[in-house]
Design a protein that fits this description.
single chain; 475 residues; globular
Length: 475
């Protein structure tokens, strides 16, 4: 099972890496050639899309992953019973998104971008149902292949729009192309895999799924909506240029989120099966999943914190985006909170307590809606970044409490304490060395962190050998 999880983490992380690379290329093209204001408009458009992609899901994809993992022979029935609802929900979400953007009062070109890009919510229903089915079947390696093709065409469309100096509205049409290509490719693959060979819509199953699904809203709501709301709030309070600078930092930090998401998503089907095999095995899986999620995400955050000035300069240029450096050094630590939220959330869902995930997600969104405007108004962009950490941290505390009550599988306090010591010490080293040459500032803190993990036994040699074997011939 461990090797299966590692394989799926790699596949989903590669998928995240594809989105990171292509997303960064697009952001750089817009940011460098069109400026911070246009990047801010693009950030607002993608914020709306991300929010309403979550809204239209109705909680169905996470439920579909669990049920497909448990009932693989019925994958076709589950896919058909879900995809029809999601396509219809996408059409409704498009209309609601357009109305909300109109009422919020964006500039005309920004509003047009939001309306046009909203069309992509319809084919996105096919995309998200197909990806959920593949994850439930643990065929995650198909996802990066499809995403590579779709994102390549998307990037080319954006490049053409930028080079020909077309209206920013063309960027909305590029978003429609991305989701349409993805939907077509997934349909072709699932047809070959005999998942969509014939129409099999079970209205009784659809009603059953819709009754269960709302509580599965929690994880995507908590993972995506708050950060996107922050962009829209910043654009309203500080202006679209400020939101462009904040987005420059956030797009680099989000690269860690995609990698971290691969970890929690790979754990989900495995934990769903372990739950049926007894509490002892489930608790051990939960404890190790949380512990290694913390270790895994912290080293990524530490590395990006140390390399922040170079990354911002290399990707966007420090002339216009110098303000993104201190923001990035703060926002990278959201990756640790992000992966903990994700892992703890999938533990709750695997244990059939998705209601807890939902309630905590609602609490997190409310916290963001209260904290972000206040922190942004008082502290500007730095305040907004700190507000994001405070809001995310509060939801992690709630998740830890909930998982402890349900499973008794949360790592003991001394594991958290040792991890805190290693992370704090490594951050202190990074702060001291931040003005030294890059090869020192960027490598020494990570080496200190790695040695701390081994000395305090947060990582076992047996686990390292298991991971290494995955990459060896015949491993």
């Amino acid at each position: 099972m461990v090797r299966n999880i590692i394989k799926n983490v790699i596949a989903l992380s590669v998928n995240g890496g594809i989105r990171i690379v292509f997303g960064m290329i697009i952001q750089v093209l817009i940011g460098r050639l069109l400026g911070a204001e246009s990047l801010g408009k693009f950030a607002v458009m993608t914020a709306y899309i991300a929010i309403f992609q979550v809204v239209m899901q109705l909680g169905l994809p996470n439920l579909l992953i669990r049920e497909t993992a448990r009932h693989r022979d019925e994958a076709s029935r589950y896919w058909w019973s879900t995809v029809v609802v999601l396509v219809l929900a996408g059409a409704v979400a498009w209309g609601v998104q357009s109305l909300v953007a109109f009422l919020w009062g964006h500039p005309p070109d920004t509003y047009a971008m939001v309306v046009v890009s909203g069309i992509s919510l319809i084919p996105f229903g096919v995309v998200i149902a197909s990806e959920a089915t593949l994850r439930g079947l643990e065929r995650m390696e198909i996802i990066p292949l499809v995403q590579t093709i779709a994102y390549t065409l998307y990037t080319l469309a954006v490049l053409v729009a930028v080079m020909l100096h077309l209206s920013v509205v063309a960027l909305g049409w590029a978003m429609v192309l991305l989701q349409t290509v993805g939907a077509i490719l997934y349909l072709l693959y699932l047809a070959r895999a005999h998942v969509v060979q014939r129409v099999w819509i079970d209205l009784g199953l659809t009603r059953h799924l819709l009754r269960l699904a709302p509580h599965f809203y929690g994880l995507p709501v908590a993972a995506i909506i708050p950060n996107r709301i922050a962009i829209i709030i910043i654009a309203k309070i500080l202006g679209e240029e400020a939101s462009g600078i904040f987005n420059a930092a956030q797009v680099l930090a989000r690269s860690l989120f995609f990698i971290s998401t691969g970890y929690s998503e790979a754990l989900y089907p495995a934990l769903s099966r372990l739950f049926l095999q007894g509490w002892d095995r489930f608790r051990r899986g939960v404890r190790l999943g949380i512990q290694y999620g913390l270790v895994f995400s912290a080293v990524l955050s530490l590395g990006m914190m140390a390399w922040a000035p170079w990354l911002v300069d290399w990707v966007f240029g420090l002339t216009e985006y110098a303000g993104a450096v201190p923001l990035l050094r703060i926002l990278v630590w959201q990756a640790v909170l992000f992966v903990l939220n994700g892992v703890l959330g999938v533990v709750e869902m695997a244990a059939n307590r998705q209601d807890l995930t939902f309630y905590i997600a609602i609490a997190k969104v409310i916290a963001f809606l209260v904290i972000i405007p206040i922190f942004t108004y008082v502290g500007g962009l730095t305040g907004a970044a700190l507000g994001i950490l405070v809001s995310s941290g509060s939801s992690v505390i709630l998740h830890i409490w909930a998982v402890h009550r349900v499973t008794r599988g949360v790592p003991p306090w001394h594991v958290w304490a040792r991890a805190g010591v290693v992370i704090a010490g490594s951050v202190a080293v990074a702060q001291v060395l931040q003005h030294t040459p890059l090869w020192i500032a960027g490598t020494v803190p990570v080496l200190v962190y790695a040695m701390g993990l081994l000395l305090l036994r947060l990582v076992q040699w047996s686990d390292i050998r298991t991971v290494t074997a995955q990459f060896m011939p015949g491993g």
